[in-house]
């Protein structure tokens, strides 16, 4: 029961974070335009969150290894609350940038949430636990844009105030219901919090872990081409507007929740994590190959089903594999670097997709993503199989 209560609390933290992120996506262009921002400025503004999440996640993870998960989770949620308040009251574009910067830094708490799940689960349970976090991601992306659409007619600041209020409640939830998992003696043993390029290179040099980090980066890069260019593609090919795209993105989120809460726990019992990861990558590649060939709107849902199922299975599985054979006091740092590699992919994916869209045509980003995902499969298959140990845990 205590473990379930902890997982529910972590689920709420991640859900609120991702709901806020999803809520901001449809609002940012309009908030920025209010202050006279040009489209390229809006592009930089959109990238600010992922950029600072990239920089902050390893630091947040290492700090949680040293000072405890609970303290850092509370501090990060306070930062998220401040970020949304600043967004709501912003009087110029620089305050908007500051709000996204703060929210990006505190968005590094995702790695702490992952480390907490690793702390309270056995190796057999870990993929399932990461799947719960993945479901929080999916639900956040469903509810965030929906809430923005419902509340924005009352003013662009109203959704931001709503997100601030939601993040405020998780501060108290964490304080009262979440127990610390890093004991004082373990925290003292933890290495000093110093994150630098040499440490990142050292992690990449560890064959299984480095392979997974590169694979996670490329998966996020490929998937971000969908989020960065999908609406433009549907507009060009089928004259879809925001309403239709909203339904399509909600469909992706719903599938992610169903897969990670319902399908993933079953498959983890039937397959080893490595096989599950490789199969899910194949499924996602099929979806991306289908998108450029679609000739009717119905088949968009078919392609998105492959993509959403593949992504919904691969993300928690690869994160669970990254925590294998890692000392418990290193979970935060390792998963922090993992989160950073994902953020790096989410920064450059939309940029690369946009360049390909403009230079070679609307469907090109999806074709390139399909090729990349196929290459990921052939990269991971030989590098993971002989190296990762997935023997049952004795805990």
UniProtKB/TrEMBL annotation:
GO molecular function, one term: transmembrane transporter activity
PROSITE patterns named among the record's database cross-references: MFS (PS50850), SUGAR_TRANSPORT_1 (PS00216)
Membrane topology: Multi-pass membrane protein
Coiled-coil ranges (or none): none
Gene Ontology CC, one term: membrane
Transmembrane segments: 7-28, 40-60, 72-95, 130-152, 158-178, 209-234, 246-264, 276-309, 347-380
Major facilitator superfamily (MFS) profile domain: residues covered: 6-385
Protein name: Major facilitator superfamily (MFS) profile domain-containing protein
Species of the source: Candidatus Woesebacteria bacterium GWA1_41_8
């Amino acid at each position: 029961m205590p473990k379930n209560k902890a997982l529910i609390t972590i689920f709420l933290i991640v859900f609120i974070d991702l709901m806020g992120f999803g809520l901001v996506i449809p609002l940012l262009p309009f908030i920025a335009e209010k202050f006279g921002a040009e489209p390229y400025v809006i592009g930089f503004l959109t990238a600010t969150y992922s950029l600072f999440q990239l920089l902050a996640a390893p630091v947040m993870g290492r700090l949680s290894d040293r000072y405890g998960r609970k303290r850092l989770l509370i501090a990060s949620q306070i930062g998220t609350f401040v970020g949304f308040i600043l967004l709501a009251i912003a009087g110029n574009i620089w305050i908007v940038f500051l709000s996204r910067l703060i929210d990006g830094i505190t968005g590094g708490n995702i790695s702490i949430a992952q480390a907490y799940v690793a702390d309270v689960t056995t190796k057999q349970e870990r993929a399932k636990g990461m799947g719960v976090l993945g479901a929080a991601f999916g639900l956040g992306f469903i509810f965030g844009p929906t809430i923005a659409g419902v509340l924005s007619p009352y003013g662009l600041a109203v959704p931001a105030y709503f997100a601030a209020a939601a993040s405020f409640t998780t501060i108290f939830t964490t304080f009262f219901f979440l127990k610390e998992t890093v004991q004082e003696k373990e925290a003292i043993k933890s290495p000093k919090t110093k994150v630098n390029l040499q440490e990142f290179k050292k992690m990449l040099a560890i064959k299984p872990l480095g392979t997974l980090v590169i694979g996670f980066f490329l998966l996020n890069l490929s998937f971000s081409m969908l989020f960065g260019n999908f609406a433009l593609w549907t507009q060009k090919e089928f004259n879809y507007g925001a309403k239709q795209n909203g339904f399509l993105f909600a469909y992706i989120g719903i599938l992610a929740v169903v897969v990670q809460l319902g399908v993933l726990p079953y498959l983890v019992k039937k397959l080893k994590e490595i096989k599950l990861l490789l199969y899910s990558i194949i499924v996602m590649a099929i979806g991306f190959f289908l998108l450029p060939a679609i000739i009717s709107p119905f088949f968009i849902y078919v392609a998105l089903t492959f993509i959403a199922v593949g992504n919904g299975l691969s993300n928690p599985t690869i994160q669970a594999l990254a925590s294998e054979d890692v000392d418990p006091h290193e979970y935060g740092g390792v998963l922090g670097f993992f989160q950073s590699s994902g953020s790096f992919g989410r920064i450059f994916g939309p940029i690369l997709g946009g360049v390909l869209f403009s230079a070679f045509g609307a469907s090109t980003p999806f074709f390139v993503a399909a090729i990349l995902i196929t290459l990921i499969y052939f990269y991971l298959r030989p590098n993971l199989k002989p190296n990762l140990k997935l023997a049952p845990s004795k805990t």
